[in-house]
Specification:
460 residues, alpha/beta, 7-stranded parallel beta sheet, globular, sialyltransferase activity
C-alpha cells in the first residue's frame, strides 16, 4: 500500500486524458470523514491526512478532502511512502510506523522532517508499541488483526461542534479498558507497592508509563498493598471511617467529637484543625494530597517530629504526571539521604495505586453519561482529591461518614477561609480552585446517591 501526505489545501490528482473524467467526478462529490486506523480521531475536510492509493487502480486517484480553496488543483499529488508533500510550506501528516498511525511533521517542499522532530516521533511510537505489548492499549483483536476504533455512543444532550469534540474526548477516556474494568470491580489495591511493580508492566494514570521507573526506589515502596502495618493501630478492613473535607458547610455544626470517635479519620488536602477542633476534630490517620513537592516535604517533616503512634500517612494522588513526578523526586531525596547517613529515611508518604484513580474515574463516567456531560468545555476529567478519599474509604471501611463534603453558598468555600460577602444561588468557587477538569457539584450529587442507598452517611 502506498501513502501520500496531503497538504492542508488538498491533494488533487494529476489530470491526464485518461483520468480527467473520473477526477472531475471524484472532486465534485463530498468524501466521508477519514478515521485513521488504530486511533479514535476523525479528520474533517481540509485536515492533513495520509491517504492510501489502491494498488489495483495503479494509484491514479488518491482519497483526499477538498477545502474549496482556490488553486488547490495546481498542487500535484505527493509522492507515495511519505516523501515530498504536495504543497509548499510546513504541515503535519500521518504515517504508519509498523504498529499504528502516528503524526509526523514534514516540510512539504523538501520532504524533510524538522530537526529534533524525527527523534521525538520515533520515541513516541516506540513507547506506544511498548504500551500495546504490555496490554495497556486495547487496539488489537485476539487474532492480531488491527481493529478500527469503536463508534462513540451518541450523547442525549445536544452539543454544538465545539463542545461535541470535547465531549468525544471525555467519552474516549471513559472507554479506556482500565476504566471499564474498574466500573465492574469491587475490590482493588489501595497503595502502590513492590508487588504491583513486579506484577504490572505499566502505571496507568493520565499519561501511562513503565513501572520500571520504580525499580531504583523499590526498597522505599511498601512491600504489599496492605496498609495496616504502616500506621499505629492500622487496619485493612476498618470498622468506621470519617472523611473530613474542608467545605464551609462544616461551620454549621460541632462535629469534632463525633469525627474523633471514628476508628480512622481521612482528610483530603491541607490539614487545618488548630482553632477548629470543635468543628472538625483533631485526629488524622490518612491525609490525601496532590503531589506538590513543598506539601510532601512539609507533611513528611511534620510527621517525623511526632511519636510513631501519632503519625499519619500521607497519600499522594496518582492521576497527574506532575503529582507522580513530585513523588519520584521525594523518593530520590530519600534515597540520597539513606546513602549519606546510612539509614532509611522512614518517610510517611506513599503513592495511591492507579486502581483507586480508575475506580473514582469510572464512577464519574457513570454519573456523566459516559463523559457526555461536564460543567466546562474541556476534554479532560479528573476526580478531586476529596472524591479519591471517599472511594478509598468505601474500599477500606465498613461504615463511612462524610463531613465537610457538601456545598453551602452562604458559607466560605473552605471552613478556614473568608466568608462570602453575600449568599448566592450556588457556591462560588475561588478562581485558584476552579479547575475545568473537576466537577465538585457532580461529586456531591454522587455522595447523595450513595447515602440514599445506604452506602455511607452524610453529616455536612
Amino acid at each position: 500500500m502506498m501513502l501520500t501526505l496531503c497538504a492542508r489545501t488538498a491533494c488533487a490528482p494529476k489530470r491526464t486524458a485518461a483520468s480527467s473524467t473520473s477526477t472531475s467526478t471524484s472532486t465534485s462529490t463530498p468524501l466521508p470523514r477519514h478515521t485513521l486506523k488504530g486511533t479514535a480521531q476523525s479528520f474533517p475536510a481540509g485536515a492533513l491526512v495520509a491517504s492510501a492509493a489502491s494498488s489495483e487502480t495503479g494509484g491514479a486517484v488518491r482519497a483526499a478532502h477538498r477545502t474549496g480553496a482556490s488553486g488547490a488543483s495546481k498542487h500535484g499529488s505527493g509522492k507515495a511512502g511519505g516523501g515530498r508533500g504536495a504543497a509548499s510550506g510546513k504541515g503535519n501528516g500521518w504515517y504508519f510506523d509498523g504498529a499504528d498511525w502516528v503524526r509526523r511533521q514534514v516540510n512539504a517542499s523538501s520532504g524533510a522532517v524538522p530537526r529534533g522532530a524525527a527523534k521525538h516521533h520515533e520515541a513516541a511510537a516506540k513507547a506506544k508499541r511498548g504500551r500495546r505489548a504490555a496490554g495497556a492499549l486495547n487496539t488489537s483483536r485476539a487474532d492480531g488483526a488491527s481493529e478500527r476504533p469503536t463508534r462513540l455512543p451518541a450523547c442525549s444532550a445536544h452539543h454544538d461542534p465545539a463542545t461535541r469534540k470535547k465531549a468525544a474526548g471525555r467519552q474516549r477516556l471513559c472507554l479506556k479498558p482500565e476504566m471499564v474494568a474498574a466500573a465492574a470491580s469491587t475490590t482493588f489495591p489501595l497503595l502502590w507497592s513492590q508487588n504491583l511493580v513486579a506484577e504490572r508492566p505499566m502505571f496507568l494514570n493520565e499519561n501511562p508509563f513503565s513501572t520500571q521507573k520504580f525499580q531504583p526506589f523499590l526498597s522505599q515502596l511498601p512491600s504489599t498493598t496492605n496498609i495496616s502495618h504502616l500506621w499505629h493501630g492500622g487496619c485493612d478492613e476498618c470498622d468506621t471511617c470519617a472523611v473530613v473535607g474542608a467545605s464551609g458547610s462544616s461551620l454549621r455544626y460541632r462535629h469534632g467529637a463525633l469525627i474523633d470517635a471514628h476508628q480512622v479519620v481521612l482528610r483530603p488536602n491541607w490539614i487545618v484543625t488548630k482553632g477548629f477542633e470543635a468543628i472538625v476534630g483533631t485526629k488524622t490517620h490518612l491525609n490525601f494530597f496532590f503531589g506538590m513537592e513543598a506539601m510532601i516535604e512539609q507533611f513528611d517533616a511534620e510527621m517525623m517530629k511526632r511519636p510513631h503512634e501519632q503519625r499519619a500517612l500521607g497519600l499522594v494522588t496518582p492521576a497527574s504526571d506532575r503529582s507522580v513526578a513530585s513523588f519520584f523526586r521525594h523518593l530520590g531525596r530519600g534515597k540520597r539521604n539513606t546513602t549519606k547517613f546510612g539509614r532509611e529515611s522512614g518517610s510517611a508518604v506513599h503513592l495511591l495505586s492507579d486502581d483507586v484513580y480508575h475506580k473514582a474515574f469510572s464512577v464519574l463516567c457513570a454519573a456523566t453519561e459516559g463523559g457526555c456531560m461536564w460543567r466546562k468545555n474541556t476534554a479532560r476529567m479528573r476526580p478531586s482529591t476529596g472524591f479519591l478519599a471517599v472511594v478509598f474509604a468505601m474500599r477500606l471501611c465498613r461504615k463511612v461518614s462524610l463531613f465537610g463534603l457538601t456545598s453551602d453558598p452562604c458559607m466560605p468555600f473552605h471552613y478556614y477561609g473568608r466568608p462570602p460577602k453575600e449568599c448566592t444561588a450556588e457556591t462560588q468557587i475561588p478562581p485558584r480552585h476552579d479547575e475545568s477538569f473537576h466537577w465538585f457539584e457532580k461529586e456531591h450529587e454522587t455522595y447523595g446517591h450513595w447515602a440514599a442507598s445506604g452506602k455511607l452517611t452524610i453529616y455536612s
